[in-house]
Every structure is written in structure tokens, then in C-alpha cells.
Design brief:
Radius of gyration: 26 Å
Number of strands: 0
Helix content: over 70%
Structural class: mainly alpha
């Protein structure tokens, strides 16, 4: 029984501390969030295209080497 009360106190303490920390966070504005999301999507697209081209080039290269 005492362990359950201690666990409840621990959970409520955790909740209070978490809420206090979240109030300290400097959240981005809507415009900043949209701009950063666009940047991330562009970087993902560019890196995906780069890795796809690299994969294609190595596939062709190994195909030439192994068929010879």
C-alpha cells in the first residue's frame, strides 16, 4: 500500500516537473515552423536524389565489372 502511494507521489512530481520544463521552452512561431519544415523536406528530397543517383551509378559500374 505504501509503495502505491509513493509511486503516485512520484508520478505527480514527474508531471509537475515536466509541465514546468515545458513552460520554459521557447516554441517556434507558426511561420518559423513552416519555414523549417520546408527546409527539412527540401534537404530530404536532395539527399534522396543524390543517394538514388549514387546507387544507380554503382549498380551500373558493378554490372560492367561483373559482366566482363
Amino acid at each position: 500500500m505504501a509503495a502505491k502511494k509513493k509511486q503516485q507521489k512520484g508520478l505527480s512530481k514527474f508531471y509537475r516537473e515536466t509541465s514546468a520544463e515545458l513552460r520554459k521552452v521557447s516554441w517556434p512561431t507558426r511561420d518559423e515552423a513552416i519555414q523549417l519544415t520546408r527546409v527539412v523536406l527540401i534537404v530530404i528530397f536532395v539527399m534522396g536524389a543524390f543517394l538514388g543517383l549514387l546507387d544507380y551509378a554503382f549498380t551500373q559500374l558493378f554490372g560492367l565489372i561483373l559482366s566482363a
